[in-house]
C-alpha cells in the first residue's frame, strides 16, 4: 500500500514537472503578438465589431425572427429554447449599448406587444433565466430610465410585466417535498451546480423591481442548498440530485457545469450588497484557488479527495480571469489569461476542451460555438490594466471570427478548431455577449463613452452579458467594495468601523477616479472576511451553513458548525479561520495526480420544466 502510494507520488511529481515545463513553453511561444493596436486601429476595430453585430443581427431579423435562433449558413431560423424570439431578447441591451435607439425602441415595442408565455413549453430554467428573464429585465431598466439616454417615451413597463409572468411560471421548479432538508427542487432530478446557482441576479433584481421577495428568496435558497452540500474541502461538484442531495458528478472545477455558480456569488454581493454571498464566495474562491489552480491553469479534481481527475482546460473556464479582476485578484488573472489565450493563438479559436497532458485538443471537444468567455476576460483585464496587449488579443479575436466564422447570414459555430469547419448554428449569446464584450473592449480604448463605462450607474454583467445597474432601487449597497469585491488590496483600502450593523462601511479605493487605471501589480494580501471592515459574516451574524454529514478528512481540521434542520444555523463560538491562501501552497502538499480519459464537456445541463396553463384556476400546472 505504502509502495503504491509512493509510486503514485513519484508519477504525480514527474507529471507536475512535465506539465509545468511544456505548458510554460507553450505560453511563451504562443502568447506573443505582432505590432500593437494603435488608437486609430482601435477605432477601426470598434467600427468593424459594430458591423459584425449588424451582419448577424440583420441576418437574424431578416431570416429567422421571430424564431429563437438563426441558422447562419442556410439563412433560416429555428426554435431552440421556447419560441420566444430568443435572439431578439438577448440582443436588446447590446442595441442600447450601441446607441441604436431606433432598433432598440422597435424591438422593445414588438416584444411588449407580441411576446407571451402562456403556451405549453418545456424549457430549461437556467437558460430561460439567463437569456430571456435577464434580457427582459436589463432592457426594461434601460427603456424605463431617462438617465440611460435610451428611455422610450411610450414604454409602460411591458417587459417587466412579461418578466414577472415568466418568473412566476418558473417558481414551482423551486418547490420540494423535502423542503426542510433541501431548499430547492427542479423537476428534473439532476441539475448542474451552475444551473442551480445562477439565478440569483435575475430573480433578485425582479424582487426588487416588483417588491415581491419570493423570487429573491427561492434563488438564494438554491444557492444555500448547493453550498450546504459542499465537501469538506469547500468544493462543489458538477451535478447534483436535487431530491436526494447526492452529488451525481463529483468533479469540481471552475468551468463546465459550475462556472457561473462562482460568478453569481460575487456578483450578487456586489449588486445587492448581501454579505451572505460574499461570505460564501470567499470560502468557495479560496478553496478553488487552493485545490483547482495549477498556476496558470485550472484542473478538475474530485471534490472530496482533491485528486486531479481532469487535467483539461475547458473553454467555459475562460470567464475566470474576468471574475478575478472583479474580485481584485488581478495578478493570477493576468497569468491565466495569457495561458488561455495561447490556446486561442494555436488554433485561431478555443476548443471546448484542451488536454493539458497531451497538449492537444481533447477528444470529442473540438468545437468553438462562438463563446464569449475569453473575450469577456480580455475586456476586464484591459479595463484593469490598460495594457495594450489586450487590444492585440482583441484584434486576433476579430480576425478569427471574420475569417473563420463569418458566414452568409451571420456567424457560424466552428465544429472543429483544427479544420475550421463551420456549422449552421448561431447561439443567441453571440450577440448578447461575444460581440458586446469585443465592442466594449475597443470602445474603452477609443473614448469609453458608453453606458457601461461612462453611464449613470455602475453595471454588473449577468452571466449572459446583460446589464444590471446598481441603482438605489436594486442595490442596497453604497459604494462599498464594489469593483474590488471580496478581495481588497490592503494598501488601497481604508476601513471605517461602524457601530450600526445595517450601515455599510465605506471603503476608499486607491485609484478612485477611474475604476481601473493602469495596473501596478495589485498587492493582494489575502482574503478579507465579510465586509471590507474584516468582520466575517459569521462573526457579524453568527451564521454558518449545514455541511453534509461525512467523515472529516484527516488533513481538514476545521471546526464544523452545528447541524440543524435548516440550511443556516446559529453557532455561538466563531473563531477566525485560516484560509488556504494564508497557509501557503506548495506542490509537495498536493494530492497525487491521476489522469483519466474520456468524458464530456457539455454546457450546463439546464433542468427542464414544462409550463402548462391550468384551465381551472390561476395556478399553473407544471410537469417535466
Ligand atoms: C452563455 O449562455 C453564458 O455565458 C453561460 O454562463 C455559459 N454559456 C454561454 C456562453 O458560453
UniProtKB/TrEMBL annotation:
Q: Which Gene Ontology BP terms does the record give? A: carbohydrate metabolic process; endoplasmic reticulum mannose trimming
Q: According to the UniProt record, where is the region Disordered?
A: 574-624
Give the residues the record marks as binding Ca(2+): 463
Name under which the protein is recorded: alpha-1,2-Mannosidase
Pfam families membership? Glyco_hydro_47 (PF01532)
GO cellular component annotations of the record: endoplasmic reticulum quality control compartment; membrane
Enzyme Commission code(s) on record: 3.2.1.-
> How far does the signal peptide extend, from start to end residue?
1-24
* Family as reported in the entry's similarity comment: Belongs to the glycosyl hydrolase 47 family.
**Gene3D superfamilies under this entry?**
1.50.10.10
A GO term for molecular function = mannosyl-oligosaccharide 1,2-alpha-mannosidase activity
**Keywords, sorted A to Z:** Calcium, Endoplasmic reticulum, Glycoprotein, Glycosidase, Hydrolase, Metal-binding, Signal
Cofactor(s) recorded in Swiss-Prot or TrEMBL: Ca(2+)
What coarse category fits the chief subcellular location reported for this protein? Answer: endoplasmic reticulum
InterPro entries registered for this protein in UniProt:
6hp_glycosidase-like_sf (IPR012341), EDEM1/2/3 (IPR044674), Glyco_hydro_47 (IPR001382), Seven-hairpin_glycosidases (IPR036026)
Q: How does it sit in the membrane?
A: Single-pass type II membrane protein
Active site annotated at which positions? Answer: 127 (proton donor), 259, 352 (proton donor), 373
Q: Per the UniProt entry, what species is this protein from, by scientific name?
A: Brassica napus (Rape)
The opening ranks of the lineage are:
Eukaryota, Viridiplantae, Streptophyta, Embryophyta, Tracheophyta
Location in the cell reads:
Endoplasmic reticulum; Membrane
